[in-house]
Design brief:
mainly beta, ten-stranded antiparallel β-sheet, two-stranded antiparallel sheet
């Protein structure tokens, strides 16, 4: 999932944030349920994994807790089935399949209006995924960004857990964790939240900044200096 961002002057304009270049060839096979998880032959899985279960009725009630142990500290995620049932179904399948275990969160952004840590690619490059895609479940209740009279920029609040994508209906395995209120178009599926202890972990990672390079001379967008590895991601069950 290759991520790109366009910055015009001091204003952040997101063009394919946390994204991957879409496959050129149309997927050929997938599940027959309502979520329609679809294989992406031109983007094979970064780590072997099957398609998620896709029952006739996707569970759409309750909150599922997922513990994410990292080398920088723990995070407890609350996945909201009502907000994004297909996304939660996929995330739980990947966690159960150990797809996220021993992976590196490859991107930290520190722009004034975009502060997130992006994870979920076993290749650690920002280009890898699970070998399938599925539909968006976009939020409709996000508040407008203060001062935005157009209503097109929304607040992805601190503690939000959302999916990265490469455009409409291209969700895979990459996700991002918001550690400070961020301004985005409502084009990214929100499927849960990060707990207070997890935010403390994210704050620690963010405070150390990003790795300076020719592609990141301003210390605003790159791999975190505090290399952040997901050691395990496991469901604790629903409530």
């Amino acid at each position: 999932m290759k991520v790109t961002a366009l910055i015009a002057g001091a204003t952040l304009m997101v063009a394919g944030l946390l994204t991957v270049t879409p496959a050129q060839a149309a997927p050929t096979t997938g599940t027959s349920g309502p979520c329609g998880y679809t294989k992406t032959p031109d983007e094979p899985p970064a780590r072997p994994v099957s398609l998620p279960p896709d029952p006739a009725h996707t569970p759409d009630k309750g909150v599922v807790k997922v513990v994410v142990a990292t080398n920088q500290g723990p995070m407890l995620l609350s996945l909201d089935r009502a907000k994004a049932p297909c996304t939660v179904q996929s995330f739980l399948h990947l966690a159960k399949s150990r797809f996220y275990d021993f992976t590196t969160c490859h991107r930290l952004t520190l722009y004034p209006t975009l502060k997130v840590l992006q994870c979920g690619d076993p290749s650690g490059t920002g280009e890898g995924g699970p070998g399938y895609s599925y539909k968006d479940e976009l939020p409709t209740d996000l508040p407008n960004w203060p001062g935005d009279t157009t209503g097109t920029r929304k607040v992805y609040a601190r503690g939000t857990l959302a999916m990265a994508n490469a455009g409409p209906n291209t969700n895979g395995s990459q996700f991002f964790l918001v550690f400070a209120d961020s301004r985005l178009r409502p084009d990214y599926t929100v499927f849960g939240s990060v707990d207070r202890l997890g935010l403390k972990t994210l704050d620690k990672v963010a405070a150390a900044g990003t790795v300076i390079s020719a592609d990141n001379p301003d210390n605003l967008d790159g791999p975190p200096v505090r290399k952040t590895d997901i050691l395990i991601a496991r469901s604790l069950g629903s409530r």
